[in-house]
Amino acid sequence: MKAVILTGGAGTRLQGISGGLPKPMMPLLGTPLLERTVALLRENGFDSLCFTLHYEPQIIRDHFRDGADFGVHIEYRQEDAPLGTAGAVLNCADFTAGEKFLVMSGDSACDFDLASLTADHQEGVTIALAAQAEPLPYGLVITDRQGYVTGFLEKPDWERVVTDQVSTGIYVLSPDVLTHIPPGRPYDFARDLFPKLLREGVPMRGRVMDGYWCDIGTPQAYYQCNLDALNGLYHLPGAAETPRRIVPCRDRARLMRAMGEALAEFGADFTDGLTVNGAQGRVHLAPVADQSALAMEGDRAAVRKLEALAKKLERDMDRQ
What number of helices (H) and strands (E) belong to the chain? Predict the structure, then answer.
């Protein structure tokens, strides 16, 4: 599968701590964020990538070269002047070559199931969404019950907030979407293309993703992302160790009981926390001692499945 990674930004708000690095090359626990992103894409079956370049392009070229050292094939498209997010993707049209493809910002950290997102895509645009309790810094995406996009709100104040769903800057596009982007001038997904597609009736769907997502655009967000990785909230793609995720909750004891009841029929072992051996692998689940959260450790696919179950059960408990 193919993916276009937007890596041309200068990261103006990070320049005080970046030392002149392009924002996607900022280290995340010692490894450039963009290298973490490449590992995530490779794990999800994306083996052909195209990087859009503008600010300090040689730093990125010298690090990744043709991608062979990272298990992927990488091409580059350089902009003499910034083309905006959508314009930069149009500049890669020869790379995407009439196939559906993923678009991802190079300065966001996430551990989403991108293979599933791409497989679910049917037509037009699919937007990966994240639920945010403090959505003001982001672009909000309003959807109906079937997930179809009905409106956008770009960085609203609280009086205009009508949803917690924010765009993560991760999209799956059908190839015909590129025909709606004017060539040779700056054009942005959120500001220009998506409102145009909405007016013209092009199908757009939003999907709220399970997992971690963070835009490292400010020093505070960058440092928090590193702390989240240390604390297990963000599973580092490409990490050799057994995946461990911390899942915050409101009542860890009650949620453990609900998880135990749900998993008992699958032969769960309760001798030390809760251990499940299933078709997708083994997971150990236990409450965290110093915070209201559950720790899940084991095979990645199984951890993801149990995390989704925990969130569903907590929503069910909230409705009781």
Answer: 10, 17
